[in-house]
Amino acid sequence: MMKTKPSMSEVGRSVPRLEARQKVSGTAQYMHHFTLPNMLYGKVFRSTVAHGRILSIDVSAAQAIAGVHSVITADDILKIIPSPYYGPAFLDQPILALNKVRYIGEPVAVVLSTDPHIAESAVHLIQAEYEELPAVFDEIEALDPSVIVHDELKPSGTFPDLKHLVGRKNTNIALDFHLHHGDPDAGFSQADHVFEHVFHTQQAMHTPLEPMVSIAEPGHQKITLHSATQMPSYVRTEIARILGWNENQVRVKVGHLGGGFGAKVYIKLEALVAALALITHRSVKISQTMEEQFYTITKHPTTFKIKSGISKEGKVVARECKVWWNGGAYADIGPRVAQKSGFTAAGPYQIDNVVIDSYEMYTNRPPAGAIRGFGIPQLVWAYECHTDLLARALNMDTLAFRRLNLLKNGHTHATGTVVKYAETEQVLDTLAEAMQWHMPFDKGTGPIRRGRGIAIGFKASVSPTTSTATVTILGDGSCVLATSTVDMGQGSDTAMAQIVAEVLGIQTEQVKVMQPDTDITPYDMGTLGSRSTFHMGHAVRLAAQDAAQKLNAMAEKASLSQQGDISFQEILLKTYGMQAGTVIGFGSFKPSYTPTQAVDGSSDNVTPFWMIGATGVEVEVDTDTGRVRVLRMVNVADAGQPLNPSIVATQLSGAAVMQYGLTMTEEMVLDGGQVTNASFADYKIPSINDIDFPMTNLLVDADHADAPFGAKGVGESGTFGVSPAIANAIHDAVGVRLNSLPLTPEKVFMALQHPTHTG
């Protein structure tokens, strides 16, 4: 039999990240560092109007600048790509603006030069003339068809769960999802109390510290893309489709990512650099500035109207949710956000009668798409503020109200899916204990008042998706893991190596993890939605088991099975007579899934696993200024059995800090469609100096029998409860309720001066 380690289990061990030394020593390679011989740099000329027909583009002055190689417009792209549109839901986004522009900041032309500074200077000499059209910026106003962003829509048909999409005319609705469970009308008529509230979230940015960057390297009937992407397999497939090529003519290579948070999923710069490289027959690199990120992909602004019918005992008997998602000018993956997140809008509560309407709306803002939480933080913000208001209206403790209504294992979710392996009770109880909820709490006197709040949320993992992996044992017994999962700081390379090591009986540090390269690493749908631990974890486990079975078979054939523990190297040496040979294990995983029904939005198998996260905070509010200071924060999550407890803890704190910024300070300010604060000088994300409060991160003791070694993703769970917990704590402290993010001192102060003002 194969030699195994004597004691320590690799899974469950806080192994230091395998790439840590490279990163802290400055030797880790990012795409922003990468150059190729004879490479051109591209700088983008962008629209200055929110909605308009392009009448002319004058590039002559820019082209005349010494050092400018060329200036490319959509007309040049049409010569090599007859239909230059892309998008994971609809093929609605042109590589460069074609005939129309739909938001301020949309790419219209590109200047190419071997010197990026020359290209940047030349961009300012391009002149474009537009026939301005009426624009719409608000998701509710977009319901009025007097302004139409897209005259026609062509569904992409890429993903099984979006194949029901249809192209519409004379509307700005990209997708509308409807769920109907029980008899809501009867539920409301029988309720003792009915309450209705409206909540809003702001447009915001992912702000990874490494902005988007892609390089296209043309070859003979092939192209190689070096890109900071979370989805190399998807990029290969989509670029091949756009070009009309086979997938084996497109290669996508990914280095280390300096953050992503959903900004770098699907196609961003890849189609543009590919087209530029094929036009010029030169390698082309485009590196965005921090400002340009604000014009590429953002977080959905939302309006959420929520109504609940309550019995006198405090049981929610009916709930109606209407959510409007402001998707901006291009759909990106917004329709999936509206559908996949939309069906959880009623919250992690057992409610017999539910109706949900979720709308993805086109507007003339920068596009919105996936961001950490995939729409769930916007929903939890609303339904957990609403939950507190319901409890307070009934003079009930807010924790007791949640416990009374909580959706638990064995209960049926509004979609019709029976909940399992979702430890909502444990998470809530653990949070209450850590917050010492039932102990007396000093709210203070004078201008400084104190309060505390809690919130709990949940998320269904995206499905159906596919992951594949290979584990290779080389002639000397060393091991290589190949996947197309992208480690963008979440520690997935280390976690996957731990799974391999656990199965093969070796140490994690002995496993080499390949960086994604679609010519070498096998298919993975993408690194998003906290799916990697569960989906790719299964594929990696199966690949390692396959390799182990092949090695055992070789040992049996070589009559080594009765000789006690033997190493991989000894098996291969005996088999091949020298240090030679390769054993490759392959694993593939695709969870089962039942699409939601068009009639009522139901499905008996809507997700392979649920993510549960809760947050509690204590705050102090200065009633003279409206300033809110968090005094402590507790985050609790159900991660199943963590593969690497240390990494999971940092995932929770990282998610909470990111959501803290989106709660307190971050907001894209637009004036007529123009972003007016597209820089770190004006758009404030939290620094280490802003996190001056103690933060506790806790995991409940849970197991997921269907998960690899009982583990599931946790990268988004820490985002769920932060915003409503802080708002609930402010309400507890000073008695005012804010209904829009961010929770700025100005909003708090105005609410204190005018108690009916909701911010």
| C-alpha geometry | globular
Uncertain spans: 1-7
* SS strand fraction: 15-25%
* Mean pLDDT across all amino acids: 95
Count of DSSP E strands? 27
At CATH level 3, the topology of the largest domain is: Aldehyde Oxidoreductase, domain 4
CATH class of the largest domain: Alpha Beta
The name of the CATH superfamily of the largest domain reads: Aldehyde oxidase/xanthine dehydrogenase, molybdopterin binding domain
End-to-end C-alpha gap:
68 Å
Count of domains: 3
Spatial order of the strands in the main sheet?
Answer: 3-7-1-14-11-12-13
Features:
759 residues; alpha+beta; Aldehyde Oxidoreductase, domain 4; Aldehyde Oxidoreductase, domain 3; 5-stranded mixed β-sheet; 27 strands; disordered N terminus
Characterise the protein shown here.
The longest helix is centred in the last third of the chain and has 26 residues, at 532-557. The radius of gyration is 27 Å and the shape is globular. 25% of the residues lie in helices and 23% in strands. It contains 18 helices and 27 strands. Residues 1-7 have low confidence and may be disordered. It starts with 19 loop residues before the first helix and ends in a 6-residue tail after the last helix. Strand 23 and strand 24 (628-638) form a beta hairpin. With 759 residues, it is α+β, with helices and mostly antiparallel strands. Helix 13 (492-504) packs parallel to helix 14. It folds into three domains: 20-30 and 465-589, Aldehyde Oxidoreductase, domain 4 (2-Layer Sandwich); 34-133 and 206-293, Alpha-Beta Complex (Aldehyde Oxidoreductase, domain 3), CATH 3.90.1170.50; 302-462 and 597-753, Aldehyde Oxidoreductase, domain 4 (2-Layer Sandwich). Strands 3-7-1-14-11-12-13 form a seven-stranded mixed β-sheet.
